[in-house]
Every structure is written in structure tokens, then in C-alpha cells.
């Protein structure tokens, strides 16, 4: 890994390609009012939740159906102009930035739940459906879609980044829960991958190749997902700990004992203070675990008892239980508001978020050393994590007007990633590579594996128009 | 789909490429006695459990380490000669046949369990380790590897075909259980994919691209797998049914109610008769389900009660329970011997095995119509299936000296696949495409998706030396 001084990823490489007037004219002819070149619209589509900036795309096409996407991609291909798919804009690593120029395809109007197969526990949706919308629309069937990355992300965006979040410890990630896709390829053709069968050995796993490809291999226009019966019983609890180490060691033991916990989230004392200030929650200002149990009433009781015993062995106290949806919502407010509470705690700041994930046995080593380093740095931060999966996020709150703070934060991130990789982990558990982790990806996967990715990209997108400049330089 | 008269896949296309003497000499110089050109060795490596024949490979290299594999591939690449990885030879679709000539790389000597990480529930193995060997070696840790395709296949082979089998209904397939790989690429370079972290969003999912690629993109030389705690309680049962429909409808209801059953296998009356004749089991000669439950003692009891009630609603009777390992082994003998019992039931026959998999709600439609068709055809057969996943196998027992029987069996398979695809299923749940299902793959995935696979193959293996002529024509 390069020395921290060579943090090339601090400033994304901007290499704008020409977007000819003839393309804009052709898009306007094809899409009418659904193609916008208004600066406000372009600006809105040229950024995400990352701390990077780039010039906005030259135009935004609002797609209403697969054919719209295919036609927009075909026109872009004719002019060798980049295409960036856009869901709700909640990605975190610069995925949506038009670093090589080009056009944005907004998929928010493709927001239909196309079919619900309750008997098979599958659902097929358009990419603009958000996870909350999906759960609202399937609620009456007694089923739910568990993947919850925090933001009310679009299913298309979650597919593109291989998202996961709080429930992944029990239900898996988008990798495990996408059964099949419809994809518009770089040539503007439409292909289908996968079937509704639960398993298949029919050729290369194009579904999983597309999941997590960050828009660089095609635009996903339809997604078939696994869904789950709403658990018979749900119980949630918060538990405070005398130290972050005690909370982490409790988590490790829960997982190693095989407790099928549905959620186990760490919230550090900084985050607790921030959400107390933001939402007046009156939480005890100590590190805490937020847990949820799903199952039969007897199963949930058994899990809860086991966990309470483990927590108590580590000095956990002040267990607060919530079994009604309203009580649970109150508890989860702390977790879901942590990002916004943090941003408000330092007005004008930007958040640099880390995303390492390590094997559970390495979690304490990875997390505790990084906490000590970050405390010593003086950079304000909060720490939350899907610790049951070995995944956690520091959010460094930097003042964008003080360049040294960014350098300091990036150095902390760099050291954290180095530590995670040395512990057989990954630089990104769920956010994706985008612009920010391209160097880390090479260190993690090796130049040979990244070359293989690049070779696939070149073969499937010879004009390099699909969200170029993300995951690896090209 | 073509008319059944055009069954091009009845006779695999043999298009032998030149294997220069200079390559054989170079292999002998590099590998000494570990490179064999003895006809007996070549013949043994030129076939699998499929009903196809092709000329044997020109030589067999017995690899003892990754470097051996890399060197063999590099030499083959220098001469543009095909390379076919060989595990234990248990594949079913002609995967191992040297239809374009070339050399075989035997991986059976790479049979070390390299590391066991009990705390993280992961294990790293060489490709020649078989699933039974792996379970023997990790038994003392209280952990097990659940994937059981029937044969004592090598982990490398199971990775290459995306295998699954009896436990997949609860534990998933190789797709879900391979965390990372070491792979020798077509150029003889060594890359690594994945990490030991439970999840990652670090670039393209090369792990899942390799899993199920049937040796066409590289040779897998190391596999990191998920393993599981041995369940606290295990209970198995067989239950006979008045009709195959009753057994199928029982299965559907078990799955739709979300019972976390570990195994639910259908054995039709033909298979029961065959195993009775073969192993003198004295089983009631009716269709039966063979089931296994894993969990806490209370959980297993709860599952068993639920299932018994469902079965009884469908006329299931003669429930026979087994809780000790010895009793369970006796019950599972019926399932595991069915293939050999069937072969013995018609001396000299060859088995053409089907492998469709459909969404669980479509299982009755798909299976029952095909049973009626097969009964009417007069071809001897047996039917077994991982019905909890919607996956089942007809084994047509054909006399290889009566060509019409093969045509008849292939027509039955063709009609079954057409039915499964019309019900949103797949032509292969777990065996892979190999030579046998190339036409079906095009119908299932569409020409566009197969073209995408072909484009990836051409990009990663420009000389087309990695197990060429499998999955798709090239």
C-alpha cells in the first residue's frame, strides 16, 4: 500500500469526455421533457453522499421503462458518451459523480412492484422502488424484504453496490437475495439473468457479476428478490456497556455461539451523545448494542436469554426491551439518526465514512486499535457498526475548509483499511469501491484480480461508457 | 426451443486440436513421473458419469501444488492446447470429456485441509479434498460442511459445477458457501478472489463468477468455505405416501410454512423397489419422503410435529423416526444407493439424468406431468429429488445398444426442460451445463445472456484453452 502521503484518492481524477450537442439534440428528440439540461437538475444528479465534487452530467434522462433506458444507452453508445444510472442518490463513495462527463439516467420513475409471488417468497421490482416502498407494498402478504442499509435506498442502487446493513447478519446481503435481473447492456441490448428457481447451475453467474458492479457493466432495469415471512415474534433490546471492548466481545460471543440474532448494532459513546443531543432520547451515555431477535415466541425468548447472559458476563447493564413496533421504532431511532445527528453536531462538516469488514474473530483487534488511533487524532468522529458481520463504520466529521483535517481523516481510514486487510478482511463491507477505494481494492484483491475485473469491463463495455472511472481506473 | 428431432446435444461435437509432441516432452521434462501418457490413465481421465464418449486427453499431469498447476497451464498456453481440470470424475454432464483434445490436470493429490478457523466458521482447502474427507478432518471441532451432492465429490469439482444436494434447502449451495478462491488463470497466473470476511462490496464478484464456470475460466487451486456448528439435535424420518402427488404437496406446504427443514428428499416407488432389491431394506413400496431436522432439541421436536401433521393431512403414514447416527445412516442408505441400485436393476444400462429446478409453487405441475409422460413412454426410470428446493432428477435407464431408447429419453428430458422453463425454472439445478445442456442454456438464458458469457470467456481465455466446448460452443 502506498504511503499515506500519496493519497491519490483524495482528489478523484476528472477527465471529461466530449458530450456532443448532437447527442443532446437526439435525446431531447427521443425523450422530450423527460430529458433535462437544467443546471439544477444536472447538479442534483452529479453528486451523492460522498465528500467529493465533480462537474455535473451534461443532461439527465428520466426513464419510465426499460425501452427508455435501452434507447438512452444506445444513443450514448453511438456518441461514446458515459452513462451514469441514478436511483435516489444515497451512495457514499462517489458512485454517481460524472468524473468523465456524460449523461445521468434517473430511474426513480421506474418504481413499480411488478409481481409478488408469496408462495415462492419472491418479488420482482423495477429499480426505482425503494426498500421502504417495497415493504409497504408487500406488508399485506405477511412478507418483508429485510435488507436495510439505513437510507431509504432504491433497490437498483442497492443491487449496484451489493448493499446490506442491519439485518444482514441473519438474512444475508444483496448477493444472497437477488435471484435474477433484467439488464440493459453497454450496447443497449436487454438481457435477463437468473430465474425464479431457488438455485441453478446454468452457466456463468451473471446475476452475481452484475450485483455490486456499480453500474459499470450495465443498467439494471428489473430485479427479482427473495422475501421472507414476517417473523412470528420480534423483540428488540438496547444494552449499555462499560467499554466499547465489552460491547465488541459480547458481539463476538453471540455470533460464535451461533445465536441466530437478526440485528446486532454497535453505537459508540460519541454517537450516543450526538443522537441524545439531536433527538432528546435520554440514552445512557455509554457504548451500546442494539439488538433484535426474530423467530417463534419460544425461539425469541431463548435467544434473548442467551444474549442477556453473555452481555451480563461482560458487564452489560441497563437492558431495555421493546416488543411493540412503537417501542422498537423508538430504540431504532438512535441507530437510524446517528448519521444526521453526527452531521448536526458539527455544522458545515462533511462525513468521511469507513467501511471495513473482518472475520468475527478479528473484530476486537481491528476495531479497538482503530478507536485508540482515532481518539488520539483529535478528529471528531462517531462509530456505528453491523458488528455481527464484523462490519463497522467510523464517520470522521471534517471541516471541508481545513484541508489538513481531510488528510488526517484519510490517513486514519488508510491505517484502518491496512489493519483490516492484514486481518483477512475487506476495505468495503457494503458501500462499494466507487472513487474512494480504488487504491484499496488493488491492495486487497491484488493487481491480477483487478486486471481480471478490468478485462471483463473492457470486453462487456468496449467504449467504456458505463459509469466509467469507478471501481478501477480505466 | 428446437423440435426434439434436432437434438444436437445427443452427440457432442468432437473437434480435436493438435497436441504437439513438443508440449508432451516439455510436460515430461517439468513433471517427470507426474506426467503420464499411459492409455489406462488417459482413458480414466477422459470420462465422467455422463453417458457420452470422446477420445481421451493426450496426457495427464498430477499436480501437487499451485505452482504445478500454473506451470502446466503456462505450457499448455504456449502451445494453445486445452486443459481440463479433474477431481474425482463424478460430474454428470460430460464436463471432463476432452472434446477438443488437450491435457488433463489431476488435482487429487492437492488434498490438504490448509486451515480451519473454527471461531469464524471458515475452512480453507485444496481442490482435491473430498467432502467426506473434509467432514472427517473437521469433526473434532464440532463443525461440519453441509453440502452433499451424493457422490463423494472433490471440493474443486463441486465449486466448478456450483453443486448443492440434500442439505441445500437449509444451508444453500456452493454459491452461498464459497467465500474465496485461489485460481490459476488461462495465462497461468495465480489470482485470489474474496476474503475471509463474511461480506464485501469490493469490486466484481470474481468468486461467484468462478463458482459454476466448469473449469472454463481457470483452475481453482484453493477454496475458502463456510462451515457450520454440528446441530445440537438431529432427527430423521421417512414417511410413505399413497401417491407421488401427496408427497409433493406435503413438501410444498412444509416449505411454504417456512419450516427450516434440513433435508427433504423425494424417492419414487421405482427407486424404492430398486433399493429394496439392491440393499434388502424392506421399505414399504410406495413413494416416500426422507426428511432431516436440525436444531435445538425443542426446535427439532417442533419442526417434526409440524411436518407430521402436514404429512398426515396428505395421507402420509408409516412415519419411521431415527435419532441415532446409526439409524439415520440406515434410512439414508435408501437415498444414497438409489443411483447404483438403479444401474443394477438393468444390467448394462446407462443413466441419463435430468436436473430441472422450479419455484416451489410450480413443483407439482412440473413433476407430476413429467411422471405421467415418462410412465407412458415405457422407458425404465427412477425419480429422486431435493424437492424442498424444487429440484428433482429423473434417471432414465437406457440400453446404449438401442439408439431409439436414447432418443426417447432425450425427448422426455427435452419436454421436461421445456416445462420447467415455462414455469420460470432452470434446466439445471446443480449438475451444470457441460456438453449436455448447451441448447437448453440458450433457451433458458437467451442468446444475449449466453453471448455475454461467451464474451467473458473470450476475454479471460483468448486462446480458448480452459475446458473448451463446455457450457456453450466456442
From TrEMBL, chains A, B:
Enzyme superclass (EC): oxidoreductase
Keyword match Chaperone: no
PROSITE patterns given in the database record: FAD_PCMH (PS51387)
Gene3D superfamilies: 3.30.465.10, 3.30.70.2740, Vanillyl-alcohol Oxidase, Chain A, domain 4
Domain FAD-binding PCMH-type: 53-230
EC number, UniProt record: 1.1.2.4
The protein's required cofactors: FAD
Domain of life: Bacteria
Pfam families for the chain: FAD-oxidase_C, FAD_binding_4
Keyword entries, A-Z: FAD, Flavoprotein, Oxidoreductase, Transit peptide
PANTHER family: D-LACTATE DEHYDROGENASE, D-LACTATE DEHYDROGENASE, MITOCHONDRIAL-RELATED
Family the entry assigns: Belongs to the FAD-binding oxidoreductase/transferase type 4 family.
Protein name: D-lactate dehydrogenase (cytochrome)
Organism name: Variovorax robiniae
Lineage: Bacteria, Pseudomonadati, Pseudomonadota, Betaproteobacteria, Burkholderiales
Amino acid at each position: 500500500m502506498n504511503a499515506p502521503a500519496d493519497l491519490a484518492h483524495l482528489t478523484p481524477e476528472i477527465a471529461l469526455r466530449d458530450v456532443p450537442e448532437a447527442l443532446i439534440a437526439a435525446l431531447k428528440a427521443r425523450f422530450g421533457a423527460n430529458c433535462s439540461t437544467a443546471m439544477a437538475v444536472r447538479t442534483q444528479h452529479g453528486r451523492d453522499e460522498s465528500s467529493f465534487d465533480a462537474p455535473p452530467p451534461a443532461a439527465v434522462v428520466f426513464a419510465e421503462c426499460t425501452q427508455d433506458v435501452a434507447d438512452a444507452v444506445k444513443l450514448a453508445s453511438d456518441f461514446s458518451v458515459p452513462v451514469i444510472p441514478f436511483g435516489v442518490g444515497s451512495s457514499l463513495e462517489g458512485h454517481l459523480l460524472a468524473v468523465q462527463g456524460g449523461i445521468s439516467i434517473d430511474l426513480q420513475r421506474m418504481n413499480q412492484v411488478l409481481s409478488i409471488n408469496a408462495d415462492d417468497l419472491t418479488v420482482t421490482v423495477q429499480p426505482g422502488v425503494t426498500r421502504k416502498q417495497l415493504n409497504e407494498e408487500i406488508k399485506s402478504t405477511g412478507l418483508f424484504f429485510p435488507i436495510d442499509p439505513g437510507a431509504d435506498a432504491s433497490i437498483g442502487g442497492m443491487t449496484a453496490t451489493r448493499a446490506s446493513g442491519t439485518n444482514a447478519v441473519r438474512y444475508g446481503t444483496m448477493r444472497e437475495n437477488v435471484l435474477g435481473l433484467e439488464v440493459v447492456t453497454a450496447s443497449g441490448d436487454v438481457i435477463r439473468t437468473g430465474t425464479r428457481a431457488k438455485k441453478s447451475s446454468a452457466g456463468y453467474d451473471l446475476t452475481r457479476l452484475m450485483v455490486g458492479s456499480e453500474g459499470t457493466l450495465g443498467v439494471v432495469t428489473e430485479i427479482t428478490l427473495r422475501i421472507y415471512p414476517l417473523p412470528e415474534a420480534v423483540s428488540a433490546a438496547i444494552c449499555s456497556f462499560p467499554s466499547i471492548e465489552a460491547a465488541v466481545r459480547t458481539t463476538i460471543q453471540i455470533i460464535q455461539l451461533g445465536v441466530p440474532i437478526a440485528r446486532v448494532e454497535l453505537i459508540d459513546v460519541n454517537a450516543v451523545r450526538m443522537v441524545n443531543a439531536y433527538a432528546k432520547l435520554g440514552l445512557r451515555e455509554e457504548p451500546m448494542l442494539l439488538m433484535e431477535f426474530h423467530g417463534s415466541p419460544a425461539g425469541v425468548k431463548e435467544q434473548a436469554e442467551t444474549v442477556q447472559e453473555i452481555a451480563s458476563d461482560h458487564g452489560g447493564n441497563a437492558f431495555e426491551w421493546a416488543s411493540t413496533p412503537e417501542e422498537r421504532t423508538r430504540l431504532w431511532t438512535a441507530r437510524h439518526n446517528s448519521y444526521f445527528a453526527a452531521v448536526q453536531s458539527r455544522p458545515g462538516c462533511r462525513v468521511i465514512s469507513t467501511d471495513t469488514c473482518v472475520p468475527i474473530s478479528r473484530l476486537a483487534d481491528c476495531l479497538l486499535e482503530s478507536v485508540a488511533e482515532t481518539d488520539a487524532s483529535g478528529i471528531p468522529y462517531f462509530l456505528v457498526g453491523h458488528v455481527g458481520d464484523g462490519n463497522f463504520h467510523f464517520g470522521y466529521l471534517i471541516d471541508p475548509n481545513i484541508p489538513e483535517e481531510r488528510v488526517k481523516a484519510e490517513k486514519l481510514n488508510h491505517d484502518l483499511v491496512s489493519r483490516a486487510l492484514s486481518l483477512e478482511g475487506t476495505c468495503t463491507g457494503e458501500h462499494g469501491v466507487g472513487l474512494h477505494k480504488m487504491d484499496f481494492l488493488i491492495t486487497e484483491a491484488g493487481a491480477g484480480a483487478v486486471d481480471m475485473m478490468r478485462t471483463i469491463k473492457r470486453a462487456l463495455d468496449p467504449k467504456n461508457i458505463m459509469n466509467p472511472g469507478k471501481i478501477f481506473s480505466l
